[in-house]
Queue: 2 jobs
Job 1
Amino acid sequence: MPINLGELAQRFDCELIGDPGVHIETLGTLANAGSNALSFLASPAYKKQLPSTKAAAVVLRTDDASDAPCAALISNDPYACYARMAAVICPPTAYEPGVHASAAVASSADVANSAHIAANAVVEDNAFIGANTYVGPGAVVGPGCVVGDDCRILANVTLVRAVTTGDRCIFHSGSVIGADGFGNAMTSDGWLKVPQIGGVRIGSDVEIGSSTTVDCGAIDDTVIEDGVRLDNQIQIAHNVHIGEHTAMATGVAVAGSAHIGKRCMMAGMVGIAGHIEICDDVTVLGKAMVSKSIRQPGAYASMFPIEDARSWNRRVASFRRLDKLIGRVSELEKKNK
Amino acid sequence: MPINLGELAQRFDCELIGDPGVHIETLGTLANAGSNALSFLASPAYKKQLPSTKAAAVVLRTDDASDAPCAALISNDPYACYARMAAVICPPTAYEPGVHASAAVASSADVANSAHIAANAVVEDNAFIGANTYVGPGAVVGPGCVVGDDCRILANVTLVRAVTTGDRCIFHSGSVIGADGFGNAMTSDGWLKVPQIGGVRIGSDVEIGSSTTVDCGAIDDTVIEDGVRLDNQIQIAHNVHIGEHTAMATGVAVAGSAHIGKRCMMAGMVGIAGHIEICDDVTVLGKAMVSKSIRQPGAYASMFPIEDARSWNRRVASFRRLDKLIGRVSELEKKNK
Amino acid sequence: MPINLGELAQRFDCELIGDPGVHIETLGTLANAGSNALSFLASPAYKKQLPSTKAAAVVLRTDDASDAPCAALISNDPYACYARMAAVICPPTAYEPGVHASAAVASSADVANSAHIAANAVVEDNAFIGANTYVGPGAVVGPGCVVGDDCRILANVTLVRAVTTGDRCIFHSGSVIGADGFGNAMTSDGWLKVPQIGGVRIGSDVEIGSSTTVDCGAIDDTVIEDGVRLDNQIQIAHNVHIGEHTAMATGVAVAGSAHIGKRCMMAGMVGIAGHIEICDDVTVLGKAMVSKSIRQPGAYASMFPIEDARSWNRRVASFRRLDKLIGRVSELEKKNK
């Protein structure tokens, strides 16, 4: 939606340095923006691209304004400010209300008139779809699921059963919410399946990435609180509890009944053991393994960065000599007493 | 299905301490069970919740019975006993036989009369669907697949082609079985695809989690034996062989032609290299990397647990000084001879 | 497609030792091939299976020819040679042109007459499907996607939006291309979604595995160049750039804006941090973490292989004493000066 700089500055309460009449029609990176695009400068790494940008305007901090070769919108938090403006300039697609002829909606389902059910989507028995919610092509909303207002369930998402969501949630393609948890009892005849009868309770403003899986609870529900952000390829096992505004990057796996606090940040490929607690405001760095509860806010790690393969192999060999080395040092200490 | 305690005790051969006439209608955790619920106590970690439970009855070991504020069903293996009772109290959904009007079943496919093919499911050429098997909404059973009796292929599962299963298998949503393996030959013009013509042979009582992928064999089949349990987000490459009753937790990746024994347990995020053998009864702990064959039953590991990021960084720095440290100690030893 | 050895030898310019009239009808491994099958010997590990093979013919190197109990096709690169012959003997399924009655194709979409759109597939507004391209059952080609000629989009694949591909690309089941990147700005009210308006640009001859996810760019496009091969369960974040003929094994995760060169090989479960550069011809070994740019071609690693759990735990304990050990050695050195 085209908008001019004066309106943007006023609406988002920014100082504008430049012509308020300039029209903004799209978004652009500093390096590649066209003359009708809004860009932003948040990270110092991109500062060198500012002087040569072709953007119509750049959202940036006061200190950077003098280097802008174009209009500048001043903000203390340029990334968030840009995000808000971007949502006005390039709003999410709007969908016509209605159910596509090829969609299959159970007669016992309750779909808001303003909802959009796309081609070959399926809404099963006793499911509820809220106002303005979009159910994409091939998506399945299983029996008894309750989806709030203004949600987006993208193509080929599966809400298996007993999933309840708040409003404004987004489920990306291929995500699977509410499948059976991995509950097996060992017997002399092999594994015995333990019935998984809990559901998944999801707050409002939650976004869940592609191919991310969130299992239903074994008995009580799996819980994801308001504002949680999960990237792609994440696994949330049965009865996990994730506190408000916690974010997880790709490939994180959380084992059963782990309880994770608010405003935590898990970097990519972190593993979290079952039945542990992580307090609020914990950051875990990439590829680390959390095998015990964390009771102090702060940053945690357990990852070795790469080296060239030959030196790495030497290091691993040295590591295997460490036990003996400790003995050798003790021996020397005795001699030197 | 409601049942009273007397019937439960008799059917599963348990001692009952309490009123056999009490009706059980659902399941509950010790902490949250209602007065019509059956609960269980298996792990000592939950023992403290027993005295205050509101459950109608608890499955537990003799030693714990005196702390139960309600009826008790005595078992040496309370978790397995609970699982069996739970399957009676909350049986899996039963489906009416038939093919939904929106499903597409190829004329050459052979679908048992008692099978249920849900909305927008697809059964392709020459596929066979056994008695009482459920094919969920949006699921695809590809050409030449043979699915046994009493299986559950949940919503949006894909059996790509040439997948054969035994009876009572469960495939959770988003799992993909029988896609091409990753076979590429390097040439001077880049990678050349190697045709993948094998299938996937799956035994009975196998359960495969959401978004788990099992590739077809390059020439011979990929094989998963009876009773195997795979959690979500697992990758099984072409020509892997997994022995009976082996279980793998989330995020395990098994490379091509690995041969894994019976009753193995792989914890979350374990990696298993290609073309290796793992004998029966091996347990691999979380995040470990199996790069060589394992020929002795037992537990294996290679993971570092987290520490606070600052101490971890110091440790990594020390690790990099280890090579030199070994030299320094040798030097000291010379001096101290 | 049956073919005789003489034709194979001529077509692929191989020396044939044996009867050119022998008919080949299928493919087989050395161990299990039948008498109408072509097999190959590329890796020395399988050399011991050659003398007892029942294959009709084996593709192998000159040096191995004398051990073949059957016809031999001589090649310097038997694996690539076999791959080319295999594609003739077992060509990919051919599909009849046409749109299945249950597929939903938007009126604004442009589908080549020679394309095949399978049951319950969905092609959305303004999408373009090239000549001879196959869109499998349940697959969704989202608005504005442009798919080249001779591509295969398998069952339940999702091209979300704004995905452009070259020719001869293969997308395996469950892969999701073009979903929103993980763009979130922290605010005092929690995470704010940053609109993701870029697309995904994919070259020709690219193959993408099951459940692999490739996100659209935040503003500019995510780019995958010609000949790239991605295995299953891989995550490619927004604005990643992958150079020609790079291959990645299962479970690799690449964070946002990483730029990866040509002909790189990433083994399974490698993590690659955001905003870094990896030059051409880099190999990263399994489970390693690339947290900084790599500017020299070569092999890199950071993984510890398993040991039995008891010794591993001892090693971790020793590792934690390393800091102090360094101090103890310094102390000894002072005494021994």
Job 2
Amino acid sequence: MTISNTKWVLKSRPSGLVKEDNFELITEELSELNEGDLLLENQYLSFDPTQRMWLTDLPGYLPPVQIDEVVRSGGVGKVVESKNDAYQVGDLLTGLVGWQKFCQVSANVLPFFRKIPDNLPIPTTMNVFGSTGLTAYFGLLDVGKPKEGETVVVSGAAGATGSVVAQIAKIMGCHVIGIAGGAEKCQWLKEIGVDDVIDYKEENVPERLTQLAKNGIDIYFDNVGGPIMESVLFLINLNARIVMCGSISNYTGENLPKGPMNLTMLIIKRASIEGFLVLDYMHRADEAYTDLIKWVEDGKIIHREDVQEGLENCPQTLNRLFTGANKGKQLLKI
Amino acid sequence: MTISNTKWVLKSRPSGLVKEDNFELITEELSELNEGDLLLENQYLSFDPTQRMWLTDLPGYLPPVQIDEVVRSGGVGKVVESKNDAYQVGDLLTGLVGWQKFCQVSANVLPFFRKIPDNLPIPTTMNVFGSTGLTAYFGLLDVGKPKEGETVVVSGAAGATGSVVAQIAKIMGCHVIGIAGGAEKCQWLKEIGVDDVIDYKEENVPERLTQLAKNGIDIYFDNVGGPIMESVLFLINLNARIVMCGSISNYTGENLPKGPMNLTMLIIKRASIEGFLVLDYMHRADEAYTDLIKWVEDGKIIHREDVQEGLENCPQTLNRLFTGANKGKQLLKI
């Protein structure tokens, strides 16, 4: 029996927001599986800012998506055919499944997929109980090293990663200032316990930061890149840690703005900026999940998923991250 | 007996290079010493880029020099009068002696002065056997953490700190690329064993860095700030360390240029930028001096001092650091 797959392939490198004609939705017959391989039927796709960077030809931590290649993205698929004894039909796997209905997983890339537990709602395994949660956990705790009473600023604070960072910082006893765009997001951040919120669409970020960070800034968890860094640098305390997690403002690769004029503050304050990727922490995932599951059960971490529907809506769904339309972790149900 | 002191006081905050009329050379009668105090007759003054920043009213790790205050600078003075049993007439002390003939040291600031050993030439105690050497030693070894075979780029490589950094990196078995301005400095760097040299006044730094750092850059020891950072960031290896030691290009506080557009490279490469000040390492000075003295004796570290003369020449001497006229550590003999 031949199976026909529907998939989005890249046709041209987008500039700014993606347009539907940067891609093409094509149908193809799938080849037979080899020994050791699996066929997944994708259930959910995960949308992350980093995906947008994979569509550029800038240097990155993964090679760019090539023209005519399926668009790379995370997601969850269900095994519908298995030539690998370790996997049964019906198993749910998370990994880079791509914008497509089916995903053939060859044995050599299987180590980059992970079975997800039966007892968790699938969307949460791409959010707080997935890479997003791990990013927040290790980025804040391992790189940022928060101490009780410190002031933590989080940009993109209402986003999937940012909101978990902000709540873990609260659990650690920090004063948390969240920066987000729009009244709904800011209101939600207050509801989940963030101490102070700045609406960057309505307020003057440098002024508000100066008012709110009365004791200076000890940690800046940067999910967005761009000019907030400069405002933060003017306010950092001795031995401050800036955790660079994401740089959504630069991911389109167009007209990269210059950086902060005041990096010299790092010398004056013996402070650091450190970039990190969750990929380097995957071997410690269980350690994080133990805490994260407990914190969610205890109501200390609130999470939300924004679930769009229909494979045909992938391009618009990706743009939601960059227009700020998403309310929580952006997913798409196929 | 009253003693009359001659000193340079700040009259106006300079813009760009200092001008003689930003200062005034005045004479004053010194007051009597209190119990516990010392009177030093200054022998040598040390000129360091950081002094220029103290003349601005930008935030810094020390407060700005106030108008009508003596210009702050390091140096070495000889005790000519002592009301403190721990110090004898004839002892040599190094500390912030200022642009003046005499320096009254009150008991409360004595902990910030240090006796210098008899067996070292005085100029070296402000260079490789002084803060400059400590800066190079701890900045490279503690913050940069070089490993054998790594590529280390040093800006301001022919300067007092940079040249010691470059040579310690060679001792550690690294491939060293030095950036300096002018043929004489570049030639000297080759003579002291730096592997590759870039003359930023004559060559295209980004192009040359790309050619020379064939295996990428593991450590960038930044003595100058400014645009080299951006060129370096494009070439960093996984887990690269950028040590921010100085930012001479920004010390005048005028028209601060924007920073690197590509800080996102820190994420891609899981790399860091860390600022440091030698002040935080003074308690470990002996550990460094043991190595530094041995390395100089063994001919593994070559140092040179550029000694100007005459208190009246302080302003021009400070500018030598910013025009690049100095050949090695800038000093002035009074």
